[in-house]
Amino acid sequence: MITGGICCLYRNSGTIAQQVVTAGERTPVVRKEVLETAQKVLLVTMVFIVLTIGYLSWQALHPPDHTTALELPSPVPTDTPVPTSEPPPKVGIVAGHYGFDSGAICSDGLQEVEITVAIAEKVVALLRRKDYQVELLGEFDEAIFGYQADAFVSLHADSCDIPGASGFKVARVTNSAVPEEEDRLVKCLWDEYEKWTGLARHEDSITPDMRQYHAFRKIALDTPGAIIEMGFMLDDRNILLYEQEKVARGIASGVICFLEGGSSD
Fold first, then answer.
1. 3-class DSSP state of 137
2. What are phi and psi of 138, to 5 degrees?
3. Cystine design at 254: which of 48, 172, 189, 206 (Cβ 3.0–4.6 Å)?
4. Where does the pLDDT of residue 134 fall: very low under 50, low under 70, confident under 90, or very high at 90 and above?
5. Whole-number average pLDDT of the chain
């Protein structure tokens, strides 16, 4: 009985020792897991603390604005009109005889309308570069009736029937409803055309037909109008055919001079 008990005791002692050893081996693993968990908790806690401190600091530097929109005075309505941009000046340019007949014809077949259309197109292009509203009109264009514009100019050329004749001329209607404005337009055309082309003024040959030009009786009374005979188709043929840009600039500059308030003296 005693022997058997001792054997059992030895066996149990071995088992206990083995269990103690096993427990001793597990202890570091448990401690490692606990340590890692504690580190995670500490990290989360530190992040929370940092965020809290940051938020409180921001609040201290940016106190809330207790002024509300309701506390501000309401704007007082006014009747001041909203400014609007002025429309661009409107200009009507008539190509003499265009859409009606040939006008004067030279012995070699050169027609007045060929000259007036070519130069009128160039004048229109030059004025449009100034952002003006410009229309190219025919001799008896329906749009002429009651035509409202800031300036109206009809382009023509003198005949080939007078050898030795050279120069240009400008006129307005005899009984003008706006004489001061039309005189200013005429003077601008005289001055600028002479400067650009070098042609002489041929004032003595201004005819009643020019002063009673049909379109003057059709356009609106307050539309300043003028007619220009750009030169003689015989002696001034070179400039009328081969220096049309110069001719067009003389007319366009005259219109611009008028629209910008020039030649008021």
1. strand
2. -85, 170
3. 189
4. very high
5. 85
Rounded Cα distance, 250 and 189, in Å: 7
In this structure, how many other beta carbons lie within 10 angstroms of the beta carbon of residue 107? 8
**How many CB atoms lie under 10 A from the CB of residue 4?**
8
Cβ partners under 8 Å of residue 138, min gap 6: 94, 95, 98, 99, 100
| 249's tokens | 């600039």
Q: In the chain, how long is the greatest CA-to-CA distance?
A: 168
Q: Can you give the pTM of this predicted structure?
A: 0.69
What percent of the chain clears pLDDT 90, i.e. is strictly above it?
Answer: 66
Spans of all domains in the chain: 1-62, 90-259
Ramachandran angles phi, psi of 172, nearest 5°: -125, 175
The 8-class DSSP code of residue 218 comes to: T
Pairing of strands 169-171, 225-232: antiparallel
Q: Which residues pair with 95 in a beta bridge?
A: 155
Structure tokens given for 173: 């209607």
What confidence score (pLDDT) does residue 264 get?
A: 75
Among 55-64, 84-93, 159-168, 223-232, the minimum mean pLDDT is found in 55-64
DSSP structure class, residue 147:
-
As its CATH architecture, domain 90-259 has 3-Layer(aba) Sandwich (3.40)
The whole-number average pLDDT for the span 140-146 is 97
